[in-house]
Amino acid sequence: MQGKTRPPATAGEAISRMDHYVALGLIGQQEVAQLLGLNVTDLTCLGHVLGAGDEPLSAGDLASLANLTTGAVTGVLNRLERAGYARRQPDPDDRRRVRVVADPVAARRVVEVYEPFYARLAALFDEYSPDEVAVIADWFARATVEARAHLDRLRSGEPDPAEPANPAAPGVLKPPMIKFPFSCPTEGSA
């Protein structure tokens, strides 16, 4: 398939559209979590467990993927087990470790909730050429790395090395004009 001609967009416009998508996604995750009787963190971890497929994750792997402490993951796993979504099983190669396995019936319930949305996204991707889909996939992979680095920096309390110490200094490059999510209203707006 050949890609369509699309209107031009700046990086700032793309980031603004991403912000709106992410914000809607957060609300959607809350709705799905509530529907399934989970909280958003537990749903996120369950998603990682389901995504691992036939290669069950260790609790440590799950902590790393979800960017949580191992102590927090213990609480998540306790709740997922109580709700019937997952269980711990001993690692066959190292009995001191546990692997996390999704309950097949519960996994089907989760898939039933997400399947219609993923079908819509698949149809949307059909409107893009393979090269365009590759660019989108690459961007998401690289943006995930940047998001993780930003989260790590926020948690550490250290300044961002990419941000100049004095942004008003002459000659300092500034990012494109970006409308931050749900920007403060301008004067005179309600």
What does this structure look like?
There is one protein chain. By secondary structure, the protein is mainly α. Helix content is 57%, strand content 9%. The chain is built from six helices and three strands. Strands 1-3-2 form a three-stranded antiparallel β-sheet. The longest helix has 27 residues, at 130-156. Residues 182-190 have low confidence and may be disordered.
Topology:
Layout: H1 11-36, H2 40-51, E1 57-58, H3 59-66, H4 70-83, E2 86-91, E3 94-102, H5 104-125, H6 130-156
Antiparallel strand pairs: 1-3, 2-3
Helix pairs in contact: 2-3, 2-4, 3-4
Please report the number of helical segments: 6
- Count of individual beta strands: 3
Task: Give unreliable regions as ranges.
Answer: 182-190
| Rg over CA atoms | 21 Å
Distance between the termini: 46 Å
Main sheet summary: 3 strands, antiparallel
Q: How are strands sequenced across the largest beta sheet?
A: 1-3-2
| String of helices and strands | HHEHHEEHH
Determine the structural class based on helices, strands and strand pairing: mainly alpha
Shape: globular
List keywords for this structure.
190 residues, mainly alpha
Summarize the entry for a quick read.
It contains six helices and three strands. By secondary structure, it is mainly alpha-helical. It has a three-stranded antiparallel beta sheet.
